[in-house]
Amino acid sequence: MGQLVLAAKVTHVPSLMLSEISGSPLRAAREPAVASLRELGRRARERGVTCFVVFDTHWLSNFGYHINANERHRGAFTSHEAPQMIQDLRYDLPGDTDLAKAIADRAFDADLNVTAHQVASLGLEYGTIVPMHYMNPDGFAKVVSVASPLFTSFEESRLLGEATRRAIDQSGERVAILASGSLSHRLWPNKKLGPEAWTSVASEFNRQVDLRVLELWQARRYREFLDMLPDYATKCNGEGGMADTIMLFAALGWYDYRGTAEQLCDYFPSSGSGQVTVEFHVDT
User: Tens of pLDDT along 13-56?
Assistant: First the structure.
C-alpha cells in the first residue's frame, strides 16, 4: 500500500529565480522562500518520498483535467510570460506513469474527465519546475504534474483531490503532494510594474484575507477555512480558481483533516499576489 507522507502549499513565483543572480535586488527578499522549498525537499528525502504529485495552477487547461504521465521529464524551459526571469532552465526528472494513470482511473471512477498523457514533447510548466528546482534538483523522486482547468467547478476539483488520495493509497509509493500556487492572486497592472511591485500586494483586502487564512490554518480551524474557500477563491482572485488548494485539502481528508500547519517562511508579496510555503503535517 502507498502512503501520503508530506503535503504542502508552495510558492512557485518566477521571481524566485532572480534570487540566484548575483547582485539581484531580490536576492535577499526571496531567500526565505527559497530556503522553505529546500527545507521541504530535505524533509521529503528524509521521509523516503518516491514521488511528488504537483497540483500546478500554472498549467491551465481549457478542456478537462490533464496529467503528465511521461516516464521522463526532460527539457529547457523559458517562461512565455516572464522570459527575463526564467530562461533556459534545464530539468531532467523521472516521471511516474503508473501513478499518473492510476489517478486518472480513480478520477474516471468519479465520473471526471481526466486524461493521463504520455507525449514526449509535453513539457512541464513552471508551477512544477520551480518547486522541483529547489526540492528535487537531482531527481531523487519521481514527478507527476496535474493541470488545473479554467472551466471547472469547486466540486470537480474536490473529487480529483479525493481520487488522487485513493490512487496514492493503492500504490506502492511514498508520496508528497504539493499545491503549487499563490494565496490571493490579483497582480499589478503593467503601468505599476516597477520595483515596488515585487514587494507589495495589489489589494489590501486580499492581503488581510490572506493573513486571516494563515491564522485559521495555524489554529487548525480548517472547517471554517473550507467553508470560506469558495468565496476566497472568487473574491481574492484565486490563481487557477485555487484548484490546487481545493485538491490538496480533499486529498488530506477535507473536514476530517486535523493536522498541524507549519508555516516555513513569512507571507510575502510578488507582483501583487500573496505567497507562502506551509507544510500540512500528516500521520505517517
Answer: 988 987 777 777 777 888 999 999 999 999 999 999 999 999 99
pLDDT bucket at 91, cuts 50 / 70 / 90: very high
Kindly report the CA angle at 88 between 179 and 248, in degrees rounded to 5?
5
DSSP letters for 103-133 = HHHHHHHTT--EEEE--TT----HHHHHHHH
**Grid coordinates of 29:** 527578499
Biggest CA–CA distance in the chain, Å, is 53
What's the rounded Cα separation, in Å, for the pair 274 and 243? Answer: 16
* Pairwise CA distance, residues 144 & 86, whole Å: 21
pLDDT of res. 187: 83
Strands 114-117 and 65-68: parallel
- Exposed/middle/buried for 260, CB within 10 Å: 0-12, 13-18, 19+? exposed
List pLDDT tens digits, range 175-221.
999 999 999 998 877 766 666 777 789 999 999 999 999 999 999 99
- Measured CA to CA, the distance from residue 112 to residue 233 in angstroms comes to 21
Question: C-alpha 157: how far from its chain's center?
Answer: 14
Q: Are strands 3-10 and 51-61 parallel, antiparallel or unpaired?
A: unpaired
Tell me the helices (H) and strands (E) count for the chain, helix number first.
8, 12
258: phi > 0 → left, psi -120 to 50 → alpha, else beta; which?
A: alpha
Query: Quick check: helix, strand or coil at residue 171?
Result: coil
Average pLDDT across the chain, whole number: 93
List the beta strands (DSSP E) in 11-159: 51-61, 65-68, 72-77, 89-94, 114-117, 142-149
Sign of the alpha-carbon torsion through 11, 12, 16, 20:
positive
